[in-house]
From TrEMBL:
It comes from Candidatus Kentrum sp. LFY. GO terms for biological process: iron-sulfur cluster assembly. GO terms for molecular function: iron ion binding; iron-sulfur cluster binding. This is Nitrogen fixation protein NifU. It comes from the Bacteria. The lineage of its organism: Bacteria, Pseudomonadati, Pseudomonadota, Gammaproteobacteria, Candidatus Kentrum. Residues 3-103 form the NIF system FeS cluster assembly NifU N-terminal domain. It holds the Pfam family NifU_N.
Amino acid sequence: MSSDLIIKHFTNPRFVGRLENPEMEIEVIGQACGDRLLVQVQSNDGMVSDVAFQVWGTAASMAAADIFCESIKGKVFSEISDRDDGEIEAMLGELEPSEHHCIDKLIELHRFLIAEAERQGVM
């Protein structure tokens, strides 16, 4: 059974949707599961000012995307870039074996977000 954290973010996602004019779009497709995550970001003065996501896949992937968005909104890119893989994995709490694929997707989202922020010069 999924953890309370996963259930909370799946049943009541705060960041699901689309931004009108996103500055960044990061898309990840899970190698193991085929789930597709799309995260859109707006920034202001080197900080994530707004974020939204869409998921085509499992409940755990939706929850993971919501947790990721919650973790970056209001944060400066330099702070986000300092996170290591262990910190990103810890954001998801305890996972069922069938949900572990979400860790790889979040790590990939994180790396793509930082690369895009560097490419756009907002860091």
